[in-house]
């Protein structure tokens, strides 16, 4: 095991020139042009957004640039939304191992997003503020789109051929049966508000706290079975490109995914975002903060405006396909404009989302690092994410990744393994 760790440490130290060369070799298809627009109408002042198009996987290497688009819909105040906007990206990036090429970086993103969301939640809760926020966080790297989300802000993909797909899952207790079952299994109660006489009104809520969502960042005053572990989906577009519409529930309470996409087809991204907001307000009025980001991913030889893809005679069920080992099949799907699904996972169990490591989790200093908060750990301090009680079903409780005591405590709380209300310091 020691020799394996040594090999990993040496691999972490990759010269910048070698990384740049690797990046150049890995780009088999020319990068698309990314254009975007944003529009919003405020009622409560609790919606926030992030647009950052100059991020770099390899500092100083312009060919490693990627873009981030995110919406944070706060509730019970705006502090959680502001804190998440300012810190989530850095926390995600700190969870990505150093020295990765582009393919390895994309494979590492789903796990890093989980760690970043949990770390952001843990740090915000330690501040003692009680607000919470949804988070829909989108990374666009060339033709690959990775989306992580908690709550009910939504991201949809329109391939301009009447094929509209949702890249997120709504964590509303009213609609999501699996999340209701998870919350009750973890010690929470699900029910509606009761008024005098015993009548129940309004949407399903989680008690204590009365939150309508089962996943969020913040919300220190509710049970910790309201988890920050995101649903993550990663897809690769064909060179026909596509349009992303990212919006808070002020849009989705008024418009279906199909209606939002249809309302702005043929418009450039900036006008499209305004049109979606306008259509939502026309349909429902300004009853909530209403925020929309539109992102067009366009082939470089057609960068002036989004070009509608001709409607394909392909079953809609074939829109997403698991990554195939057959290059012939992959090329065939790409040729007809079908989006390739690379990754999808929505489990709320941290051990399932962080995976298994044999020799990873060790820093170049020789110390182990917490898979969530990235603090250095001596070998005797790290607690395997798979370790549990004597009734644990894990067959490898000694296997990484490892957690510090605070993050292990957070994990147990989210899974209902300790009483609600015991907060992480």
Write a structural description.
There is one protein chain. The chain is an alpha+beta fold. It has eleven helices and 20 strands. It has two domains: 32-171 and 226-348, 4-Layer Sandwich (Phosphatase 2c, domain 1); 350-425, no CATH class. Strands 2, 3, 4, 5, 6, 11, 12, 15 and 16 form a nine-stranded mixed β-sheet that branches. Strands 1-14-13-7-8 form a five-stranded antiparallel β-sheet. The protein has a two-stranded antiparallel sheet with strand order 9-10. α3 packs antiparallel against α4. The radius of gyration is 22 Å and the shape is globular. The relative contact order is 0.15. The model is unreliable at 1-11, 304-336, 389-395 and 420-425 (pLDDT under 50).
What is the count of structural domains?
Answer: 2
Q: Characterize the overall form.
A: globular
In oligomeric terms, what are we looking at?
single chain
Number of strands: 20
In what range is the share of β-strand residues?
A: 25-35%
Main beta sheet: strand number and arrangement? 9 strands, mixed
Please, what is the CATH homologous superfamily of the largest domain? PPM-type phosphatase domain
- Quickly give the CATH architecture of the largest domain: 4-Layer Sandwich
Structural class from helices and strands?
Answer: alpha+beta
CATH class of the largest domain equals Alpha Beta
Global mean pLDDT: 83
Helical content class: 25-40%
What fold name goes in the CATH topology slot of the largest domain?
Phosphatase 2c, domain 1
Spans of at least 5 consecutive residues with low confidence = 1-11, 304-336, 389-395, 420-425
Radius of gyration: 22 Å
Distance between the termini: 34 Å
Secondary structure tally, helices? 11
